[in-house]
C-alpha cells in the first residue's frame, strides 16, 4: 500500500476553500562551510518559484551573521494547490560586506529544488544542497511546513530581562529572545526571534505578535490505487488504432492520464509504492477472465515503485494479456473498499484511499457498481474515473452525481459524493496539469467531509516553550 497523505484529516480539515489552502514554510540549515579560516558565513535563503519555465524570486529570509547552522525566523507563506505540481527552489547565499567601500557581496553556496507537495506530505523535508556545478555538498537544508487554519488570531507578547551576564570582562551582552515550539517528535522549532538589543544587560524588547496559524500542526496520509481497463473494446494493442497501442515516440491516452494524475499524487506518498490492477482481460497462465488482477502479475504484492513503476508494469503486461470483457468495475471498487474498511477499525483511522479507474467503455455492471459506490461512501475512500476514447460516457454522469444523488438499486443513497468522472477527450489539447487539476479538485473536500462525519478532529497544537539566546 502507498501512503499518499499523512493524516488527511489533520491537513485537509484545515482547508480554507475548495481548491487551495495557505501554508507556512520554516527554514534552517546545517553544515554551511566557513567563508575562510577567519570568517563564518552570513547566510540567507532565497525562495524562487517556477513560472513558465523560469525561476522567479518570491521572498528571502533575513541574513544571520557569522553562523554555519542558521535557524531562520523569517517564514514563507504560500498558496498550496493540492491538485497542482508547484516547483520550488531554495538558494543559499552568503551576504557580507567587503572591500574598502564596504559594498555588499552575495556568494552563491548551493540550492535545492523540490515540489511544495513533497514538503506538505512529509511535514519536514531535509535535503543536501547542490553546490554550483550540481555536485552534492555537505550543507543540509530543512524545510518544515504548517498549514494555516484560516484563523487570523494572534498572541501579542512583550518581554524584558534584568541583570543579564556580561559578554566578557570588557563588554556587555547583546541579548535577543527566541521562542521555540516543542514538536511531537521532541525536536525544537523556532517560532519567533526578537531584535537584538546591543550592549544592554536590562533589555526591553519591542512588543510583537505571533500568529496562531504558525502554532498549528498538520499530518497527511492518503492511499492511491490504480485500475486499468483491459477489455477488448480498447482494440488490439498491436494495432496503431488501439487505445492501448504502445507508440515508440509518444504515450497513449491511458499513459497520459496515468502520468498526469499519478505525478501529482506521488508527491504525497511517503514510500512511493502504488498498487496497480487491471480488469476485463484473460490473464496468464490459465487465461481466465479477471476483473481485479495485479498488473505486475504478483497477487501477493501488486505494488509498483513510483508512477514510473506502474507505467513499466503496464507496458510489460500488455503483450501477455488477451483483452476480453465485459467492463465490470464493481469488483475493483469492492477490492479497494475492503482495504479501506480495515482502516476504519484501526485506532486513528488516518489513512484515506483513492482509486483511479481508467476505462474506455460503458460500464456493464452498473447495478453492482452503484451498490459498491454506495457502500464505499461510508469508508475513507474516493473514486476518480477517467474515460478514455470516444465512447458514450453519459451513464458516468449518474455515478458522478450529475443526475442527482446516486442511489443503489435498493434505493439507498450515498452518504457522501465520492466519485469524480472526467472524459479524457476534453483534455486532449490541454496540459497534463489541467487534467490533474480537474480530477483532483474535489478530493480535498471529500476527505474533509469523511473525517467530519466521523467526528475525527485534527491533532491539538504542540507544547510551546521559550528560551533565551544571546548573540555575540
From TrEMBL:
UniProt xrefs under Gene3D superfamilies: C2 domain (2.60.40.150)
InterPro entries in alphabetical order: C2_dom, C2_domain_sf, C2B_Copine, Copine, Copine_C, VWF_A, vWFA_dom_sf
Pfam families, A to Z: C2, Copine
Keyword Metal-binding: yes
Keyword annotations from UniProtKB, A to Z: Calcium, Metal-binding, Repeat
Gene Ontology biological-process entries: cellular response to calcium ion
Family matches, as CDD domains: C2A_Copine (cd04048), C2B_Copine (cd04047)
The keyword Chaperone is assigned to this record: no
Any GO MF annotation of the entry: metal ion binding
Residue stretches making up the C2 domain: 1-129, 135-268
Gene Ontology cellular component list: plasma membrane
Classification via PROSITE patterns: C2
Entry similarity comment: Belongs to the copine family.
Xref: PANTHER family: COPINE, COPINE-4
Record's protein name: Copine 4
Amino acid at each position: 500500500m502507498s501512503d499518499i497523505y499523512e493524516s488527511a484529516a489533520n491537513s485537509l480539515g484545515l482547508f480554507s476553500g475548495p481548491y487551495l489552502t495557505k501554508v507556512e514554510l520554516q527554514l534552517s540549515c546545517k553544515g554551511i562551510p566557513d567563508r575562510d579560516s577567519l570568517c563564518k558565513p552570513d547566510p540567507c535563503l532565497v525562495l524562487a518559484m517556477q513560472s513558465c519555465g523560469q525561476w522567479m524570486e518570491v521572498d528571502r529570509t533575513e541574513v544571520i551573521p557569522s553562523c554555519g547552522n542558521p535557524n531562520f525566523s523569517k517564514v514563507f507563506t504560500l498558496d498550496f494547490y493540492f491538485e497542482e505540481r508547484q516547483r520550488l527552489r531554495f538558494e543559499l547565499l552568503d551576504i557580507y560586506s567587503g572591500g574598502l567601500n564596504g559594498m555588499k557581496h552575495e556568494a552563491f553556496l548551493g540550492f535545492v529544488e523540490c515540489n511544495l507537495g513533497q514538503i506538505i506530505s512529509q511535514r519536514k523535508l531535509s535535503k543536501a544542497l547542490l553546490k554550483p556545478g550540481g555536485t552534492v555538498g555537505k550543507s543540509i537544508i530543512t524545510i518544515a511546513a504548517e498549514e494555516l487554519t484560516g484563523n487570523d488570531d494572534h498572541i501579542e507578547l512583550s518581554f524584558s530581562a534584568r541583570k543579564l551576564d556580561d559578554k566578557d570582562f570588557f563588554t556587555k551582552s547583546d541579548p535577543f529572545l527566541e521562542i521555540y515550539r516543542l514538536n511531537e517528535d521532541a525536536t525544537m522549532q523556532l517560532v519567533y526571534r526578537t531584535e537584538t538589543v546591543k550592549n544592554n544587560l536590562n533589555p526591553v524588547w519591542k512588543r510583537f505578535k505571533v500568529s496562531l496559524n504558525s502554532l498549528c500542526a498538520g499530518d497527511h496520509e492518503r492511499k492511491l490505487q490504480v485500475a486499468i481497463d483491459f477489455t477488448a473494446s480498447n482494440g488490439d494493442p498491436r494495432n496503431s488504432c488501439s487505445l492501448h497501442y504502445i507508440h515508440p515516440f509518444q504515450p497513449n491516452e491511458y499513459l497520459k492520464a496515468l502520468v498526469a494524475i499519478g505525478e501529482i499524487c506521488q508527491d504525497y506518498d511517503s514510500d512511493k509504492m502504488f498498487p496497480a490492477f487491471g480488469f476485463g482481460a484473460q490473464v496468464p497462465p490459465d487465461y481466465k477472465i479477471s476483473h481485479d488482477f495485479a498488473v505486475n502479475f504478483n497477487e501477493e504484492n501488486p505494488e509498483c515503485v513510483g508512477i514510473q513503476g506502474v507505467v513499466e508494469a503496464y507496458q510489460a503486461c500488455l503483450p501477455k494479456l488477451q483483452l476480453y470483457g465485459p467492463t465490470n468495475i464493481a469488483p475493483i471498487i469492492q477490492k479497494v473498499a475492503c482495504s479501506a474498511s480495515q482502516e476504519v477499525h484501526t485506532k486513528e483511522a488516518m489513512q484515506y484511499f483513492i482509486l483511479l479507474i481508467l476505462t474506455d467503455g460503458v460500464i456493464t455492471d452498473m447495478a453492482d457498481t452503484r451498490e459498491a459506490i454506495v457502500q464505499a461512501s461510508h469508508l475513507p475512500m474516493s473514486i476518480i474515473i477517467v474515460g478514455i476514447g470516444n465512447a458514450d460516457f453519459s451513464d458516468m454522469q449518474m455515478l458522478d452525481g450529475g443526475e442527482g444523488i446516486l442511489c443503489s438499486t435498493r434505493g439507498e443513497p450515498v452518504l457522501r459524493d465520492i466519485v469524480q468522472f472526467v472524459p479524457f477527450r476534453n483534455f486532449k489539447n490541454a496540459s497534463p496539469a489541467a487534467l490533474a487539476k480537474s480530477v483532483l479538485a474535489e478530493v480535498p473536500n471529500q476527505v474533509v467531509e469523511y473525517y467530519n462525519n466521523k467526528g475525527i478532529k485534527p491533532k491539538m497544537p504542540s507544547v510551546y516553550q521559550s528560551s533565551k539566546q544571546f548573540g555575540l
